[in-house]
Queue: 2 jobs
Job 1
Amino acid sequence: MESDSSTATADSSTAKPLSRDNLGGLLDSVDAFLFDCDGVIWRGDSLIDGVAETLSFLRSKGKKLVFVTNNSRKSRRQYSKKFQSLAISVSEDEIFTSSFAAAMFLRVNNFPQDKKVYVVGGEGILEELQLAGYTGLGGPEDGKKVVDLKSDEIFEHDKSVGAVVVGLDPQINYYKLQYGSLCIRENPGCLFVATNRDAAGHLTRSQEWPGAGAMVAAMCAVTQKEPIVVGKPSTFLMEFLLQKFNIDCSRMCMVGDRLDTDILFGQSAGCKTLLVFSGCTSPSLLQDPSNKIHPDYYAGKVSDILQLSGP
Amino acid sequence: MESDSSTATADSSTAKPLSRDNLGGLLDSVDAFLFDCDGVIWRGDSLIDGVAETLSFLRSKGKKLVFVTNNSRKSRRQYSKKFQSLAISVSEDEIFTSSFAAAMFLRVNNFPQDKKVYVVGGEGILEELQLAGYTGLGGPEDGKKVVDLKSDEIFEHDKSVGAVVVGLDPQINYYKLQYGSLCIRENPGCLFVATNRDAAGHLTRSQEWPGAGAMVAAMCAVTQKEPIVVGKPSTFLMEFLLQKFNIDCSRMCMVGDRLDTDILFGQSAGCKTLLVFSGCTSPSLLQDPSNKIHPDYYAGKVSDILQLSGP
């Protein structure tokens, strides 16, 4: 689904194709570029063509680079290692994951340290919870647990769980759905936090896979409750980002491949927005009359920035 | 949560408590009683007090008995065996399960026999599909399958799958979500059929567990599509029931423990309705101002019929 910039011919009432004419103005008006990762920087474990050179180019122009991802399977530390393995130098401080967002949400809401957090999701959430001083339960450890469903079975759950965090979980099972829903329904005041609600994501190079939205929807159906969403398009993370970089939102540009998360997030925060077609959005999806989310600019892929700036 | 009829003091704008005064009129005006099973006849594998005697009483009065359940884990044959094991004689013809409904839906829509059906759910769906002449894939067999998510992994799916049936699946996993969603998204014209959307059910005696609604919601989230629902509250099964029993809907009474499935189903079909509090609905839930579904009658449990008819 990757398309060259020359084929990025989507039209929309407001979105403009990134071009030699408008790139200079965009670069002048922006001090920081916020990048989504999956479908923008890489697909699966493969870097998208020209990304490394484009990031170097932007750094050479004095632009701050920030990576804001809804992927909760990794912690910030693990993400930094993934960048390293792809020969791109990015520090933990420049990375904002939805796993980190979940832990920060609990911290800013003074979630008590003696309460536990049940995790339907990956190692990244557990690691961020631990770094924030919290005790996580569940996660990969519960991935192999099965339930008997014998008539007299009593499914026990920890009454000291005060929050359930749901993220993308390739080891989703019935045990976790029951555990999480019992905590939410039966533990007084138990929080229901979703890292994000993405329908699907490019977990491998050539295919989309069920996203956190699937696990969150299942938990909503059982509990008949709606979660607090901390990842994109929620702008919850923005205040941490502002503290760190001290740049006005209007001088940031969010670069992403998803209209309903990345572009909506950027617009909600007051950033400029650039949609790339290297991930899950096609030009025809942008053009579809049912689509109400229009970025400021669109391009085939991130490296169009470098290409259009050249001689 | 079982409550005696004497404690069934719910009030509502339209619902009346079943009483000695109105029971005679109800019995006279009804030729067939339609019963939900889980939370009405049994809870888990335990018969609810007085059910056997009440069913015998109704049969002795010449009433037809029909069992209409959203439980898709069993086939009609398996359900009949469950009744037998509880010392209640019920024939397969008197049982209408959502697994049967799924197979009948495909048949009345002339689903081609050379197309396959992918099942996210239990053995009951596979058995009913087979009885209807269809080839099912998935189900329990895929319960232990795991995905690698290596960058170059290609997840293959059968292009001849023309329908995905989703029901309650205690062996739900990521593999099945990916398989079903690929069929729905990539196989042209592939149907998305849900046995039902119940949030939760009493799979064991003392606890509720995630219902088919959880698996269906997850599949909806991934595919961004809505299913065709064949179980309650859809009245799809009613035409089969009418063919079999030749009784006017207005002379039927639907007895169930769920407002949004059983009572809504009965009302949609033009039946009389009796809510019992032996399952997932409490008197306070019936009374709650947010509840818009009001049965004709309510009672503590099925055996109130017998008790109120006595001397």
Note: Chain A is about 35% helix and 20% strand.
Job 2
Amino acid sequence: AIVAAAASLFAPGPLAGRHVLITAGPTREYLDPVRFISNPSTGKMGLALAEAARGMGAKVTVVLGPVGAVERSGYEVVDVVSAEDMAREVLARVDEVDCFIASAAVSDWKPETRAAQKVKKSEGPEALTLVRTPDVLAEASRRVSGREKRPVLVGFAAETQRVVEYARDKLERKGLDAIVANDVTAPGAGFGVDTNQVTVLTRDGKQRELSGTKREVARSILGLIQELLPPRP
Amino acid sequence: AIVAAAASLFAPGPLAGRHVLITAGPTREYLDPVRFISNPSTGKMGLALAEAARGMGAKVTVVLGPVGAVERSGYEVVDVVSAEDMAREVLARVDEVDCFIASAAVSDWKPETRAAQKVKKSEGPEALTLVRTPDVLAEASRRVSGREKRPVLVGFAAETQRVVEYARDKLERKGLDAIVANDVTAPGAGFGVDTNQVTVLTRDGKQRELSGTKREVARSILGLIQELLPPRP
């Protein structure tokens, strides 16, 4: 980490002077003090993006869901638990960044209520009512839409079928510049593993396949993002 | 680990010749390929018990829920995901062990159905029907009850209120020899942290308070268990 930090002092890199905001990891939506709805995201892809962006000279802020102990040097980390926490921290920052990469696996639903005490088995619940959480990326996009200096917006689509179709729809619906789509059930891709294979779709209709370690895929994604950034003032 | 293994060759320890089965970590109950109900257990307490039992000369088998990368040398680890997986692996082994310590935070409910594909946001579910999972410890207790050579059964009770009362009830209802109760909302206790403070209740009505690092607490718990084991044949 010291070597990397020292190196960055001498090689400003293609993203020098840019601020990149990244969400990573899962969110947890608690139904009582000890139970939650979540997903298997480990934050590896998002943290690889943070590392790559830092390596290219960017200032990096990661809004990070609960992933346990991870390397977090060289960039600012804002720890969050729920989708609501994540939305709040992102919306407080998205106006001022050059790029927002939403790689977190945000829970789409949360329990309607959160019990103050651990719910005993005998009491239920047998039916859990779920309500939608804030859509972090869509809200961020709405917030910056129409601005003169609008950050490049990059989404992720973790799908198990019709991956490219769903991703293209999401790109258009949320007003994104690019979306990184992957089939999380494919071997060597998705949650927890160190490799990934993704399809990057951009607003101009182009489609690129990337595969390799998450670190390699992260560098390639940031190379594509770099092309989408407006020229420096 | 090598030093510990070498030491155990020369000092058989008070649990030499005993086989201890331990469950540790959370379980995950999936509602579709990418979403689940779980809890914040990191397996630290259970793995500290495994380490302590091994240090006292026991043969140790850990049935371990999803906790990410953890030290797992010196004992057998059986990886599981759901409560059903955990119950199956425990019931396959509990007949042959001298002690079963159920320290895992097993999900009490699971979604009634598991969708084959990721459920799209627009489709729902807005109501999630939950059904009970197998009670691993109660099933293990039923299985061995009345046997001549019955393992010592130790439960855990993670509570947020009326801790000792709930734990005493659980000890009696499930036919346990001891139960380790803790208030998971107390500072320096419960999920994820390296320390714990617990109350150990035994069938004879005694109650002991233990606190310290999870490693220290683990050693003390095993010291109490050692007293409950029948003399060696």
Note: The first strand of chain B starts at residue 19 and ends at 24.
